[in-house]
Design goal:
The chain is of the alpha/beta class. The chain is built from five helices and five strands, in the order αβαβαβαβαβ.
Length: 167
């Protein structure tokens, strides 16, 4: 009986040893590390097939900066002289004050960013002389990259009539 018990014990140990050796040869499966999902950014494939118009009447620099962010998302390279700007901006609200030369120190960041986008050909920026006058801004008191128009809402309508699409 002792022999039989010893035989059963040896068979059990041998079985465990065989199972353990086979498990050792199986590659360890590790769970993939958790990665926070990031929204996929799709780069624009070039300028839109239509002209965009931004009818600007914003109350803060932050709102104007958000608009510039959108324009920069569309821009994948500087545009040449013969190419249409990606967006025509028409300034005809209180934001005209941001561009008065007397306020440059206060609004330097937004003015410089607008100048950069204009220099890259991304934007054509119009500023309303009627609104400028209401804030006491003379025509020679705004940067030269701004195209002055007599009446901002009239410029918006002119651009819409030419097929521009509001963004």
């Amino acid at each position: 009986m002792v022999g039989r018990s010893l035989l059963i014990l040896l068979l059990a140990v041998g079985g465990f040893w065989l199972a353990a050796s086979r498990l050792a040869s199986v590659p360890e499966i590790r769970p993939a590390p958790l990665v926070e999902a990031q929204p996929e950014r799709i780069a624009p494939s070039g300028p839109p097939a239509y002209n965009l118009l931004a009818d600007i009447r914003v109350g803060s620099v932050a709102e104007l900066q958000l608009l510039f962010d959108r324009v920069e998302q569309l821009l994948d390279r500087p545009l040449s002289d013969g190419e249409q700007p990606l967006v025509s901006l028409v300034l005809h609200g209180q934001e005209v004050q941001f561009f008065a030369l007397r306020n440059y120190d206060k609004y330097k960041g937004v003015v410089d960013r607008a100048a950069k986008l204009a220099a890259l050909g991304a934007v054509d920026i119009s500023i309303c002389r009627t609104q400028m006058e209401s804030y006491g801004i003379e025509p020679d008191q705004v940067p030269g990259f701004l195209r002055q128009v007599p009446y901002g809402p009239g410029e918006v309508e002119r651009l819409r009539d030419k097929g521009y699409v509001s963004m």
